[in-house]
Design brief:
The structure holds two protein chains of two kinds. By secondary structure, chain A is α+β, with helices and mostly antiparallel strands. Chain A is built from 15 helices and 21 strands. Chain B has a single domain, classed as Cytochrome Bc1 Complex, Chain D, domain 2 (Orthogonal Bundle). Chain B has six helices and one strand, in the order βαααααα. Classes of the chains: A alpha+beta, B mainly alpha. The interface between A and B is large, with 54 and 31 residues. Strand 5 of chain A pairs antiparallel with strand 1 of chain B.
C-alpha cells in the first residue's frame, strides 16, 4: 500500500481509520486497481518515474464529510488534492501535482442546490456535471441556458476553478467570471462562504458577488487554499432565436479590420462568440496545398501578403472568415445582423456575408443534429471526434496536451503569433502545429487563446519526453513575446508560473505568503499553479 | 435539494424491487419450488438490464450513442469498417470482461472511469446490458 510522502505508516493507518469513519468504508479507495483510476489518462509522464500518482482516494458526500477528512489530513500532515468530476483531460485529469497525495473525489457531491429562472442563477455542488445541470433545467422547463465547455462531462465548479471557458455569449463564456459566491473547506477544516454567502440567511448569494470587504474568491481558482464545495453561477436567460452568418474578407491584411470590427460588435454585446477560420486552411479543407504554394511557404520569410492574396484568388476563396452568432428575438437578431453588415460594408471593401438559417427555440430533432450544440448551451461530447479514430485519423493518439497562450485580440497579434510559433517549431526541429492560416480560439471574452494540442502516448516515452521539452521551450518563447498560458497541466505549472515573473516573482511570493498563513502544514493541492508549501518549496533560479 | 446522479434509479423503485425479488427467490428455495426460480431470475435479469440500460445511456451513450456527434461510435465505425457495428448496443460479440476492461482501462482517447462515476455494480449491469444479445462463436472479435 502506498503511503503519502512524509507520513509514518502508523499515522497513515490511523488516518485511514478516521477517513473510513468520516466517509464510510466503501468510499476510501486504497487498492492498486482503484487508485490507478486516478492517474491522468492523458499524462505526458505516463509510465515514467515522475508520473503523478496518488496514495489513496476518498469520496465524501457532504461538506461536513469534506471538513472531517481535511481535519484528519491536517492533523497528520497528509497532502490532499481535490477533484470535481475529474475530467480535466489535457490539463492534468484527476491526478495531483504532488505524487502520493490523497485525492478527495467530490463526484458524489452531485446536488443541484437551486436554479432560478427569473433571476437567472444556479447553485451547484462540485460533482454536478454540465450534463446534469442541463438535464435538471430541461426536465423542469426552466427558462435559462448554461454555458458549457466542449465536453459535457465536466463540472461547472471544477471547470470554472481552472478558469475554463465556453461558447455562448459574452462573459458567460468565462466560467469563473460568471460564478457568484462559493463555499470552501479551509485546510484546518473550517467552512467559509464568500460574497453574500457570508451573511447567514443571505437572499442573494448567487446574484451579488462581493458581499462586503475584500473579495477572496479568486484565491480558490487555480489555487490551493481550500476545497470548494458549492458555487453559484449567473445564467443566461434563454433567447428566443439564434442565427449565424459567416463574414469573409478577401485580403490577408484584412485580418486587422476584421478582428477590430468583430471586437466592436462583441464588446457591444451584439454578437456571441466569434469563430474565426481561414478558407485557405485548417478544418474543412483537408489535403496539402498545391506544390507552388508549398515552395513559397518554405522560402525564408514565407509568402508575401500579395502572394497570399493571389493564392486566395486562385482558390476562389477569401483570406479570412468568421462565423458570427446572433442571439435574441428574431427582430433583435435581424437588427444586429443588419448592423454588422453595415459596419463591414463601410470598413472592409469586398467583404461578404453568408447567412445561416434563423433557428427558433426549442429546436427540432433535425436542427439539433446539425447545430453546434455548445453554441446554444447544449452539453455533448462531439469534440472528441477530433482526437478519436476517424477515416481521416486512422491511428489516433492516446490523449492530448493543451498549450494555451493568451494573446491580444487583434489581427496583428494573430499574424505575429503565427510567425513566432512557426519559427519556434522550425528551430526545435519539429513539424509546426501552426500555419499561416491558424486562427486562435475565442472562448475568452477579451483575449485570444492561440491554442495547440500535442499528442500524448501511453507507450512511446521518448515521444512524450520530446513533447515536454518542446512544450517548455514554447512557454519561454511565448513569455518573451508577452504571452502567458492561462491554464496548464501540473507537470508544467512551475514553468508557467515562472514566466509570470514581474518584480522578481512578486505575485508568486504573495501566493506563497498567503499559502503559508492559511495552510501552514501545506496539505491542500501542494504545487498547484507552482504554489508550493514552505517545506516543499524549491529555490527559484 | 435534488439528487441528480444515478437518476435512472430514482422513482423506479429498482432497489426495492431487487430486494423483494431476492426475498422471493429465497422463499421459493425454502418451499422447494425451483420451477419458479427461472421466472424470478428472468425478472431479476430484466431489472439488471434496465439498470444497465440506464447506466449505459447516462455514462456511455454521450460518446457511443446513435447519430452524428458521437465520437465513440464514429471511432468504432472507422476501426471495424463494417465488419462490426459502430454502435456498441448493436454488437453481439462483446463479453462482460471486455466491457469491464474498456471502462476501467480506457482505450485510445477514451479515459478510464473511476468507481465514483461508474460503480462496480453499474459496470456489471452495463456489461450485462451490452452482452444481452451475445452470440458466442469461434474466433469471435471481442474487443470493444
Amino acid at each position: 500500500m502506498a503511503v503519502p510522502p512524509g507520513v509514518s505508516t502508523r499515522d497513515w493507518e490511523t488516518a485511514l481509520r478516521q477517513f473510513r469513519q468520516a466517509v464510510g468504508e466503501s468510499w476510501v479507495f486504497t487498492s492498486d486497481d482503484d487508485i490507478a483510476l486516478y492517474r491522468d489518462a492523458y499524462s505526458p509522464l505516463w509510465g515514467e518515474p515522475e508520473e503523478r500518482l496518488v496514495s489513496a482516494a476518498l469520496a465524501p458526500d457532504t461538506t461536513e464529510q469534506v471538513s472531517a477528512v481535511v481535519r484528519t489530513a491536517n492533523q497528520f500532515r497528509i497532502p490532499v488534492f481535490p477533484i470535481s468530476t475529474g475530467k480535466n483531460l489535457g490539463y492534468g485529469g484527476s491526478a495531483p501535482n504532488l505524487s502520493g497525495s490523497v485525492v478527495i473525489d467530490l463526484k458524489r457531491m452531485n446536488r443541484v442546490v437551486e436554479v432560478d429562472d427569473t433571476r437567472h442563477f444556479a447553485i451547484v455542488e462540485p460533482g454536478v456535471a454540465y450534463f446534469d445541470l442541463y438535464r435538471h433545467i430541461q426536465e423542469r422547463r426552466l427558462n435559462v441556458w448554461i454555458d458549457c465547455p466542449d465536453p459535457g462531462w465536466g463540472s461547472p465548479v471544477g471547470n470554472s476553478l481552472d478558469h475554463g471557458v465556453g461558447y455562448t455569449f459574452g462573459a458567460y463564456r468565462d466560467h469563473f467570471h460568471s460564478h457568484c459566491g462559493l463555499e470552501a473547506v479551509l485546510p484546518n477544516g473550517d467552512v467559509v462562504r464568500t460574497g453574500m454567502g457570508a451573511l447567514p440567511g443571505a437572499k442573494t448569494w448567487a446574484e451579488y458577488r462581493y458581499g462586503f470587504g475584500p473579495t477572496v474568491d479568486g484565491l480558490f481558482a487555480q489555487g490551493n487554499l481550500g476545497i470548494v464545495t458549492k458555487m453559484g453561477f449567473h445564467l443566461l436567460p434563454a433567447p428566443e432565436a439564434y442565427q449565424t452568418s459567416i463574414v469573409t474578407v478577401p485580403r490577408r491584411r484584412d485580418i486587422v479590420p476584421l478582428v477590430d470590427l468583430i471586437n466592436e460588435l462583441e464588446h457591444q454585446a451584439l454578437v456571441g462568440m466569434p469563430e474565426y477560420f481561414s478558407p485557405l486552411g485548417g478544418f474543412g479543407r483537408p489535403g496539402p496545398p498545391p506544390q507552388e504554394f508549398v515552395a513559397l511557404m518554405q522560402r525564408p520569410g514565407g509568402p508575401t501578403d500579395e502572394e497570399f492574396d493571389r493564392y486566395a484568388q486562385q482558390r476562389n476563396a477569401g483570406a479570412w472568415s468568421c462565423r458570427l452568432q446572433f442571439y435574441g428575438s428574431p427582430k433583435v437578431v435581424a437588427a444586429h445582423l443588419e448592423h454588422a453588415k453595415d459596419r463591414f460594408a463601410a470598413v472592409v471593401a469586398g467583404s461578404t456575408f453568408q447567412d445561416g438559417e434563423l433557428l427558433r427555440f426549442p429546436l427540432n430533432a433535425e436542427q439539433l443534429d446539425r447545430v453546434h450544440k455548445v453554441a446554444v448551451g447544449i452539453p455533448n461530447m462531439s469534440i472528441f471526434s477530433i482526437g478519436a479514430r476517424t477515416e481521416l485519423n486512422p491511428s489516433p493518439s492516446d490523449g492530448h496536451l493543451w498549450f494555451s497562450p493568451i494573446i491580444p485580440k487583434s489581427g496583428e497579434a494573430v499574424l505575429e503569433a503565427q510567425r513566432v510559433f512557426m519559427d519556434a517549431f522550425a528551430k526545435l526541429g519539429m513539424p509546426s502545429m501552426v500555419s499561416p492560416f491558424t486562427m486562435p480560439a475565442t472562448w475568452m471574452h477579451r483575449a485570444f487563446i492561440f491554442i495547440m494540442a500535442f499528442p500524448i502516448s501511453r507507450s512511446n516515452v521518448a515521444q512524450n519526453q520530446r513533447t515536454r521539452t518542446v512544450f517548455r521551450e514554447l512557454v519561454k518563447v511565448a513569455a518573451e513575446h508577452g504571452w502567458g498560458e492561462y491554464r496548464t497541466a501540473p507537470v508544467f505549472q512551475d514553468d508557467v508560473m515562472a514566466a509570470y515573473s514581474f518584480n522578481n516573482h512578486s505575485l508568486l511570493r504573495l501566493h506563497e505568503a498567503i499559502k503559508d498563513a492559511v495552510d501552514p502544514n501545506g496539505i491542500v493541492a501542494a504545487g498547484r499553479s507552482g504554489i508550493w508549501p514552505r517545506h516543499l518549496r524549491r529555490t527559484r533560479a | 435539494m435534488k439528487l441528480v446522479g444515478r437518476w435512472w434509479t430514482v422513482g423506479r423503485g429498482s432497489s426495492l424491487a431487487s430486494v423483494a425479488a431476492a426475498v422471493w427467490v429465497a422463499l421459493l428455495y425454502i418451499a422447494g419450488v425451483p420451477a419458479y426460480v427461472e421466472v424470478t431470475s428472468a425478472r431479476q435479469n430484466d431489472a439488471t438490464l434496465q439498470k444497465g440500460n440506464g447506466a449505459y445511456q447516462y455514462w456511455c451513450a454521450t460518446c457511443h450513442g446513435r447519430g452524428p456527434g458521437h465520437p465513440g461510435t464514429v471511432a468504432l465505425t472507422a476501426k471495424y469498417k463494417g465488419a462490426l457495428p459502430g454502435l456498441l448496443e448493436e454488437r453481439t460479440d462483446l463479453t462482460p470482461q471486455t466491457v469491464r476492461f474498456a471502462v476501467r482501462r480506457g482505450t485510445s482517447i477514451m479515459p478510464f472511469f473511476r468507481k465514483t462515476e461508474v460503480s462496480d455494480a453499474d459496470l456489471d449491469a452495463i456489461a450485462q446490458y451490452l452482452t444481452r444479445r451475445a452470440v458466442p462463436r469461434a474466433g469471435q472479435l471481442n474487443q470493444p
